[in-house]
Amino acid sequence: MFRLGYVPGVTPGKWARVWTQRHPEVRLELDQVTAAEAEGVLRERRADAALLRLPVDRTVFSAIPLYTETTVVVCPKDHLVSAADEVTVEDIAEEVVLHPLDDTLDWEQPPGEPAFERPATTADAIELVAAGIGLLIVPQSLARLHHRKDLTYRTITGTPQSQVALAWPEEATTDLVEDFIGIVRGRTVNSSRGRRPDDKAKKSGKSDQTGASGGSAKAAKARGASTAGKPKGQGKGQGQGQKQQSGGGGRRKAGGGAAPRSSRSGKPRRRS
């Protein structure tokens, strides 16, 4: 079994499907955790790896950044902000901006006017936005996750952006973790990197056997070609003797010169 944690807003479905195709024998267990719980889940080995938002403790965890999310501001549909396609932090400087305790953006204080108190969660902050209490700045995936018909969102510039990464305990880099790294990085099933050592050993052994048998076949074919068409038992001297005998030319008289030819060789003349 391979246990994968993931934080709200991250959708591991496409990677889970690839895992099922490549490793039908290993069950993939998906466990959604809050952003605050993600590191603890990995430390306690309740997950082999996790899809979370940076930063993480790099002295303990290895992490591969996967993508950067667009930051948006969530507002009521009839709010002035909704009239623009994109806003800046200056555009909301006089607005109340909520700052939930589970905020995923790396800042001490969002722009705008602070609320009287901080909501416990992003979900609670969304409810306050719907009630007209203030605005909320979050990664786009969280705005989609908490979508409501009476709310909308717009891209905002001049704010931090959230990075989603695959993280795991550095000292627990197992074969299955390596396989999942290959999947999230888009490697094919035949890629040598990210494959388990036993798979690579099997592939290497198969190649060695194929190469050895192929070499033997080529050598045998070459030996067969070199002896093809040669009479059995024929030596070098015998071949030269035949060549000399056949290259002498016509019959010769004892005294030299060519022998006369008879018009009717082998038949006596009739007497008249």
Features:
single chain; about 270 residues; alpha/beta; five-stranded mixed β-sheet; elongated
Summary of the model, kept short:
Mean pLDDT is 80; it is low at 200-222 and 224-268. The chain is 31% helix and 21% strand.
Q: What can you tell me about this protein's structure?
A:
By secondary structure, this protein is α/β, with parallel strands linked by helices. It has 7 helices and 11 strands. It has a 6-stranded mixed β-sheet. Strands 2-1-3-11-4 form a 5-stranded mixed β-sheet. Helix 1 links the parallel strand 1 and strand 2. About 25% of the residues have low confidence.
Total of helices: 7
Q: Give the beta-strand count.
A: 11
Strand content: 15-25%
What overall form do the CA principal axes indicate? elongated
Secondary-structure-based class equals alpha/beta
Mean pLDDT comes to 80
The low-pLDDT segments are 200-222, 224-268
Across the major sheet, the strand order is 6-10-5-9-7-8
C-alpha termini separation: 121 Å
Q: Major sheet, described briefly?
A: 6 strands, mixed
Radius of gyration: 43 Å
Element-level helix/strand string: EHEHEEEEEEHEHEEHHH
Percent of residues in helical segments? 25-40%
Outline the fold blueprint.
Layout: E1 2-6, H1 13-22, E2 28-32, H2 38-43, E3 49-53, E4 61-68, E5 71-76, E6 86-88, E7 96-98, E8 113-114, H3 122-130, E9 135-139, H4 140-145, E10 151-157, E11 163-169, H5 175-184, H6 197-227, H7 236-246
